[in-house]
Amino acid sequence: MKKEGCYVLILPSIHHILKVEKGAKSRSISVELIPTPRQISSDCGMAVELYPEVLERLLAMVTEINVPDWELYRREGGDYQLVREPGATGSQA
Question: Does 7-81 carry CATH code 3.30.1460.30?
Answer without folding.
Answer: no
